[in-house]
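Illustration 12: SIS domain-containing protein.
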Amino acid sequence: MNQKNFNINKPSEWMNCLSTVLNKVETKIEGNISSFDESYLYCLNLFEKVKASGNRVWWVGNGGSAAMCSHLSQDLMNKLKIKSLFLNDPALITCMANDFGYENVYSKPLNLMAEPNDILIAISSSGNSQNILSCVQLAKSKDMKVISLSGFSNENKLWNTYSDISFYLNSQLYGIVEVGHEALIHAIIETIFINQKL
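Figure caption equivalent — predicted structure in token form:
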């Protein structure tokens, strides 16, 4: 869905746009097109396994996506009792960026701390953030599971990089993509929580 002008007197147009984009979310499981409900069930399975094994879920994102990672990481821990971490300590981030470049700000500490069968949740509105893509490549090399969320163009690198589960929102608007990503993850976490699946 291309960026459009909204009537200044009708913010409901923005809400309608968000609803349309969410209802048309595109998903893949292991590179194959799937429905959102199928992807939800796959997430449920991954979360059950990571909880049972005592492994961790790691989150990476920039800007608004970073705020989302911080929020949803604690939701995953609080509601589903899964070990969940976002590497957002300012001293750590500035050290890694200064010493290794911003493209390695998450991948350097992740390489030291993440283990096989951990899960990486990688969020990038554009799908082209190099520091997020670096983490996905690292996760694959460490035999981690990857859940990715992207937007803007379906030609973006994150959507077209192999993940165990991929979500794509077809919008050029940061607000729509960011709120949409958060809504998708809330839908997954709260559906599991309400049904007490874990």
